[in-house]
Design a protein that fits this description.
Blueprint lengths: L1 H21 L13 H6 L3 H20 L5 H10 L4 H25 L12 H23 L10 H20 L5 H10 L7 H22 L4
Helix pairs in contact: 1-3, 1-5, 1-8, 3-7, 4-5, 4-6, 4-9, 5-8, 6-7, 6-9, 8-9
């Protein structure tokens, strides 16, 4: 149970920071749009988001693994570093955390009117696949191998992967790289429900590809 609680806490704060950075607060007499391309890439929001993931990984990694992401959970399971019995509870906790963080974001922002982004399917699939692959690959290489055991940089590497991905392709796909984040931003209205499959398909395939790439490169149990 303590591992599930840690996964919930880390995912909750990650999605909350994403929402608080990209959703504009409602103002009296106006209903501002949460324009992701403008809000996320005209300031330092990716730094805040990547830093949040970093600190939560450092805070809870020694207890649960610090995945905070269903895609990372699946990748770690394929790699053999997440128990089969933990996979479903982790993913459920991560999704619930994303939903609650989205609800709290809307409450704190005054339930604004939000204009969802309209990504192009092909580029969005490729962008989400590539940087979910990168994220899972970095997690496995820095936090699950004997060669890097005991290092103090794994959280920084993981957080900076999200930061780089957000700056690189966030204006193409929304820069979720995480099904829990995808559910969160969709609940907030930043992305539409009809596009949720883009995130799920690309991120699942990215996680699987990263896990098997890792296993082909690193010969250890």
């Amino acid at each position: 149970m303590r591992k599930i609680v840690v996964e919930f806490i880390g995912t909750f704060f990650l999605v909350l920071v994403v929402g608080m950075c990209v959703v504009k607060a409602s103002t009296e007499g106006a209903a501002p749009l949460a324009n992701l391309e403008h809000a996320l890439f005209s300031d330092l929001a990716p730094v805040a988001i990547g830093s949040t993931l970093m600190i939560m990984v450092y805070a809870g990694g020694h207890i649960s693994g610090g995945y905070y992401n269903p895609a990372v959970t699946i990748g770690a399971w394929i790699r053999g570093k997440c128990l089969t019995s933990d996979v479903v509870p982790y993913i459920v906790a991560q999704i619930i955390a994303g939903l609650l963080a989205a609800g709290l974001t809307l409450y704190l922002k005054g339930f604004p009117d939000v204009q969802p982004i309209t990504p192009k399917i092909g580029p969005a699939l490729v962008a989400e696949f590539l940087f979910t692959f990168a994220l899972v690959y970095v997690v496995l290489q820095t936090a699950t191998t004997k060669a890097t055991a005991g290092n103090s940089y794994y959280g920084l590497a993981i957080g900076f992967t999200i930061l780089c991905g957000a700056y690189a392709v966030g204006d193409i796909s929304g820069g979720a790289f995480n099904p829990a984040v995808a559910i969160g931003i969709t609940t907030m209205g930043v992305s539409s429900w009809e596009n949720i499959w883009i995130f799920f398909v690309a991120e699942l395939l990215g996680a699987i590809a990263a896990a098997y790439t890792f296993k082909s490169l690193v010969r250890e149990t």
